[in-house]
Amino acid sequence: MGVSTDTPITETTSFPLSVAGDEITAAQLHDILRLRVDVFVVEQKAAYPEIDGRDLLPGTRHLWIGGSVGVDSYLRVLQDAGGTFRIGRVCTSARSRGKGLAGRLMETALGGIGDAPCVLDAQAYAKNFYAKYGFAAEGEEFEEDGIPHITMWRREVPRP
Q1: 63: CB partners within 8 A, 6+ apart
Q2: Chain centre distance of CA 132
Q3: For a Cys-Cys bond, which of 21, 33, 73, 84 suits 92, CB 3.0-4.6 Å?
């Protein structure tokens, strides 16, 4: 999935970098966690267990675009039981929003996932963003950490 590299995150990169959970460096994980906490815990005021034990698993893929002061945009891909892929922790720093970075990460992630089923729990306001990548809402909205979410699936790969 994407480009594997040992490039430090502090270097500016215009393309998504990708590292497996069991290959990520301490510095890379630190910068990724800093962005995730800045966005989800501080900015969105969602107190939740950010460190969930899945970041260092061999089947986890971390994808990010680096900026001049750390990570500009990030997501991770997990493999759930039964082979389903799960995209999560999609976030972009406040300074880097509106540049299409999360979209580039989604394209890279889905390119690596291929035709396999994929699920995510989207913040409700972002439902249309994920729909652009073939995800459809299933079920009712639910609240997670004080924020409305909706489960979305990509069961069939959209064809041009």
Answers
A1: 1, 2, 16, 17, 18, 74, 75, 76, 77, 105, 108, 109
A2: 16
A3: 73
